Amino acid sequence: MHFTSERRLDDGVLEREFTLGEIPGILWTPGSASSSAPAPLILIGHPGGLHRMRPRLAARARHSAADGFAAATIELPGSGDRPRSAAAEQARADLHRALEAGEPVGEEIVDRLVLPLVDKAVPEWRTALDALLSLPEIDGPVGYSGGVISIGVRLAVVEPRISAAVLFAGSFVPRTIVEEARQVTIPLHVLLQWDDEGNDRQAALDLFDAFGAKEKTLHANMGGHTGVPQFAGDAAAQFFTRHLS
Amino acid sequence: MHFTSERRLDDGVLEREFTLGEIPGILWTPGSASSSAPAPLILIGHPGGLHRMRPRLAARARHSAADGFAAATIELPGSGDRPRSAAAEQARADLHRALEAGEPVGEEIVDRLVLPLVDKAVPEWRTALDALLSLPEIDGPVGYSGGVISIGVRLAVVEPRISAAVLFAGSFVPRTIVEEARQVTIPLHVLLQWDDEGNDRQAALDLFDAFGAKEKTLHANMGGHTGVPQFAGDAAAQFFTRHLS
């Protein structure tokens, strides 16, 4: 892990860009972190494209920092400045073709699009976690928040250091990931935008039903794909405060 | 409205029993109410049987009082000490017979059970609201919380003084009430116990979908029929604080 830039934001949060091999990432630590106890960490997921997503990611990170948490994210394979995969690009083109034609999106396309991404991304997030937890300013329980829900599911199953997760329903989920969801036992807080037209609501409900966790909560709200109400973001933050503090 | 008893609880809340004609009820006002501004009111719904439900109703009322709200409830028609309706008793017996036989509960039984209850209860709650809002210690916006969801739906449609509602999914809902739900435009916070075996989950989701409100939130949790987690109760209280304060 190699820090490449550092700046102090107006709320005192320290924002550092880093690279982890070829993977770019960003770490935000609370303003008080250098002088106080190490902070628990929230891994901030996203759909890919750090530059494009950065304002929203930074806003989530600063919200977390205000609650006393460090936050970090890394670029996804095949997104942003990272090399494209021809197979993933083909799967994405096939998906868009099906959507534009108004056809149902076949499981085969979803599998080709999502499963290789999960297989590649999850070990990267675990490697990032190794590096982040070696920093003196980070310690304690780890949460995972948002992004491609299939990555969140796999991480929750295979990574024992993650002790709570906020997941965003709304992307296509392969059937095998729904099966994996039955093995998830950490507390979950799932956000669903009820009126998100690009979202298969029934698939999201089926995935929520599959989770094996004893504490799982679904918060469904209005506002469209990107219109998560502020009170819903606040509720997700309260979930992390309950489980990571 | 005639007060029949009065006692001060250990948290300073004033608990008063009253009758409204033949209907018994209970009013809780915050400890500071006599010395400060009038409190907004939360009407506390329940499935019927004030005596049996009293500990849980009092706990909800005291939570509301701690947030600065008065809270009140009245007995439902045909419950507690109020006269039984032969037709309602017959419908309830038919319902139980269907459930015990493992048969699907026909719409005709649900209509016979719920619609006369809604038709009779809703005007009573509105009369109670008239009386409660005439008290000097109560003023401002009114919320409705819980109980038989069909009563909450009808109240939200016909009673303009109710400006926000927390509804508990889980009881049988006639099709005509689902149609009425499309006319509900006040902010809604709907609680659903996901693993409530006595609950028709799909019917609850269909009802949530039908609501015409721009701000509607569904919180689904684990814990069985009566096992609403404390954090879910806290979230419902925050909803009222956002909308009634």
UniProtKB/TrEMBL annotation, chains A, B:
Keywords: Hydrolase
An annotated Gene Ontology molecular function: hydrolase activity
Domain of life: Bacteria
InterPro entries in UniProt: AB_hydrolase_fold (IPR029058)
SUPFAM superfamilies: alpha/beta-Hydrolases
Protein name, entry field: Dienelactone hydrolase
Organism, as annotated: Actinomadura citrea
